Amino acid sequence: MALAALTVLAGCVGPAVDVPATEPPPTDRDASTDAPGATATAPGTPTATPTAAAAGTNPWGSEPVVVAVADPAGTDREWTRLVREATAFWEANAERFAGFPIEYAVRPDATNPDVVIEFVETVPECDGSSDAAGCAPLLTDGRQIDRPETVSVRTGFSDDSTVTVIQHELGHTLGLTHDDGPADVMAARSVLYTEPLPDATEREFAWDDAEFTVYVDAANASDPEGFEAQVRRALDYYEDDPPGMPTNLTFTPVDDPDDAEIVVRPVETSPCGSGAASCGGTVGWDPDGDGAVETYAELRISLVDLDGAVGWHVGYWLAFGFGAEADAEKPPPFRDASYEERRAAWWA
To answer: Under a CB-based contact definition with an 8 Å cutoff, are residues 186 and 175 in contact?
Structure first.
């Protein structure tokens, strides 16, 4: 399963004496690739089938393989250039990896092609996969070929990732399986990136939906009941649709932080560094590979001993997680609040 990297953005409120902070500048803190929402290229026929590489024979014969290009998805993208790039790869490498040379003639509108590469929104179920990036028949013998053979490629990927998928699928039509080389092309799993997408900071709401699961680590707070009650104040505040914030937000408590989209923890030392009274970080997907998050997956809120201001700090970071990174964009209670105001009934 191909995974797009997760990126963490973080900021802090501090210092420890709880003086109002300026806008928290997001910074990269870590990255992970263990999360849902990925794209994949895992088509083909079971690898136990003998490959053309073992036999060293070209199932297509000695004539150039005529390749047509179809766009049933109606994208109007220039697919032919990407197909030519993929076929050129195999013209240069088929003899080494498949055991025979291959020549292609890419004719987008060919009337009697050997292969049609079609670009579709959803690839038909392929070798048990219902969410494949591409699909092609595994051909090891010319008698298997039923012209025109169809290679399906999902739309929505970047040019480089699209070329990778086409190369992978054409490799199957040359008899190569997921166990054959080159590994960076024929592996069953590959990192694929989408076409450019708006970054999370450019989107009005950068989450998949407005229904959030929340884990509150109250057991490790000095006053567990008070800690949990203050966090609840902040959640209730946002469920009441404060000005400038997303509407219809809901928060459901969960017992496992691994199941939560919002995690609130008391900590002895802020992960944002010494002197920070609280810290917030958004974890999200970068599916287009541009180094910026496009969709948030988790908000982590870390709180140092705040002596009655827990709810205010949680509310501050919820606003940050919902897109108000600058203090001027946050609801009024979280703009330039004094020490006393953070501990008063700010939610009223």
So the answer is: no
